[in-house]
Amino acid sequence: MIPYGRQSVDESDIAAVVDVLRGDWLTTGPAVARFEQDLERLSGATRCVSVTSGTAALHVAYAAAGVGPGDEVVTTPMTFVATASSALALGATVRFADVEEDTANIDPAAVDALVTDRTKVIAGVDYAGHPIEADALNEIASRTGTLLLEDAAHSIGSTYRGRPVGSLADLTTFSFFPTKNMTTAEGGAVATTDAALGERAHRFHFIGLVRDRDEMRHPDEGPWHQEVHEWGLNYRLPDVLAALGTSQLRRLAAFKARRAEIFVRYAEALGDLDGVRLPTRRDHVDPIWHLYPLRVLEGRRREVFEAMRADGIGVQVNYLPVYRHPLFEDLGLRRGLCPNAEAFYAEELSLPMHVGLTDDDVDRVADSVRRAVRG
């Protein structure tokens, strides 16, 4: 079976992890600081806080934004559930804006129609690695007094109008799960250019601990003293995984180039095939492709999915619109809420996309698509 996603780990990655295992710090040590600094250089952020997962990154980012009961978060249904459920965890109400018909990214016009005086955060997702329309969304956020969060779980290394993902929004979250564009095994990060948001993110992911004597309520307690002023969680990424992340970052440009080659090879192999629609790339973005979201037309997606799985091709579907999960159904949300998202979901089929694919693998996948679609 050719998997739809897979990590790429080489000897340099293994050596980086072994070096930490042979050292003094397994967590809260220098490898974490180095990884966060490397992320800052790549993303254009002034503060990056590494965390234990992409879901943790979203939870931390919403907490840093001050999201709580009575607040609303406007987000996309075309994402993994954590983009929305992390806001629910803080007591917010989630409202879903429909997506653009071509990119499956959140539609700024739909966002504009949903924002109210209770909206705290607008959260877009860079679906498949294609960045959101950050300029339009930032204009809405500025005009309405909200914050923009970019869920960049798919897009570390992408750029929008020449600017790196990580510098486009008030808060950006990354995921380093093994199927993503780079990995720390499990892990994620929060990036920001706002010092106050960065400090709030750091404090929340560090159990809320305050160690600065100038900020303490009882600074004379003793040299061992530390305080918790606000609720937080232990979402710290350990040095072992941070070292893997630093090593992977050195390979990210090569990962991006290979994914681009695979994207082009699929396009050339499938461009003349009736019954499918190829993914969109807008001229002002330079994406790192996390997914290759083929659209299978005429209601045949499941048929093609099952035929390709039987053919040894590990296709996937990304994603069920979030409001169709029972968690959100039980809150009163129903199918049909976002027509573009529903239409996209009904057709989407993720072809294998990872740097371990050879040209022969890509050709085998494309041949399988053609057989399945032609019946």
UniProtKB/TrEMBL annotation:
The keyword Transcription does not apply. The keyword Isomerase does not apply. The active site is at residue 180. Keywords: Pyridoxal phosphate. Its cofactor is pyridoxal 5'-phosphate. CDD domains: AHBA_syn (cd00616). Pfam families: DegT_DnrJ_EryC1. The modification N6-(pyridoxal phosphate)lysine is found at residue 180. One of its GO terms (molecular function) is transaminase activity. GO terms for biological process: polysaccharide biosynthetic process. Belongs to the DegT/DnrJ/EryC1 family. This is dTDP-4-amino-4,6-dideoxygalactose transaminase. It comes from Terracoccus luteus. The lineage of its organism: Bacteria, Bacillati, Actinomycetota, Actinomycetes, Micrococcales.
